[in-house]
Amino acid sequence: MSLAPRVVVVHRRTEYDELLATHGTRGQAAFFLGTRGRDIAELEDRHRLTQRALDAAAAAVPVDWRRGSVERADVSRFLFSPDDVVVVVGQDGLVANVAKYLDGQPVIGIDPEPGHNAGVLVAHTVGDLGDLLRSTDHVTERTMVRAELDDGQRLLALNEVFLGHPSHQTARYELSVPGAGAEAQASSGLIVATGTGSTGWCRSIWRERGSGLALPAPADPRLAWFVREAWPSPATGVTLTEGELAGDELALTVQSDRLVAFGDGIEADSLTLTWGQTVRIGRADRALRLVA
Questions:
Q1: How do residues 241-264 score in pLDDT, each as one tens digit?
Q2: Whole-structure pTM over 0.85, yes or no?
Q3: Domains and their CATH numbers in the chain
Q4: How far apart are CA 195 and CA 202, in angstroms?
Q5: CA-CA distance, 237 to 15, in Å (whole number)?
Q6: Are 158 and 95 a contacting pair, CB within 8 Å?
């Protein structure tokens, strides 16, 4: 006899929770915010909305289904099962945070504060959850990006992979682009973004640069890449600074002591690259399955 599906609710501590953890009491937290011209009532209201959404999400799970819950800080240590249904209650970025740890499980994004979040990945209200749990075959697949080192280490991301120096120092490397050759560069780093990521940081770079590159759509298998602030010198060039990847991959060989690669802004979960190491970046062999 097969087990009933398990619903795993993913959430994160609210700003109100974090303030209480730091300052100990509501009164001390309110005093701290008051010295900075903020009112704790706003954070309490948002905290209550999130708690109500979490309570309603728990109530929407069929009584004969299994259930679990995990906080954002613990997602990297949580063991997801192949038959899980993942319900993310929070901001759009929380879906990106959990996507890299999944392998085909359907994801339902719930916005606890409609109108406050963009709703790109958390497109549903908690009132929709009961129906959505029974229609998890209706999904859209979102392309993900992969970075893999020559020693076998790899990471996945839903929005983008960033490669650069761990501080604000210049990153030095040789970039190899399919069909365009190779170039030694000194820059603020490189990002390779998916269509989902093209609504965020990647779009900011694209707009500031006035790029004519056509950014990919969320389900598009293409990736877009940009070098940030490439520096021209006798030893480094600036001709390979943007482009797209359609089934192929970039290669970057480190020419400095240490660079890092991380995905979706999670610096704590990064790959470290040392002198002479090569990392290859391209489309991942898995996708986020987002319930429509």
A1: 999 999 899 999 999 889 999 999
A2: yes
A3: 6-137 (3.40.50), 143-284 (2.60.200.30)
A4: 9
A5: 44
A6: yes
Nearest alpha carbon to residue 242 among 150, 175, 167, 142: 175
Structure-block tokens of residue 78? 């949580």
- Residue indicated by tokens 């759009």: 92
Cα dihedral 239, 266, 202, 70 in deg (nearest 10): 150
Cα gap 88→8, rounded to integer Å:
8
Beta strands in the chain (DSSP E): 6-11, 66-71, 84-89, 106-110, 139-149, 154-157, 160-164, 171-177, 181-187, 190-193, 223-227, 242-245, 250-254, 258-263, 270-274, 278-291
The first and second tokens of residue 73, run together, are 């800080």
Return left, alpha or beta for 129; rule: phi > 0 is left, psi -120 to 50 is alpha, else beta. alpha
| Residue found under tokens 């289904």 | 65
- Residue labelled with tokens 């949580």: 78
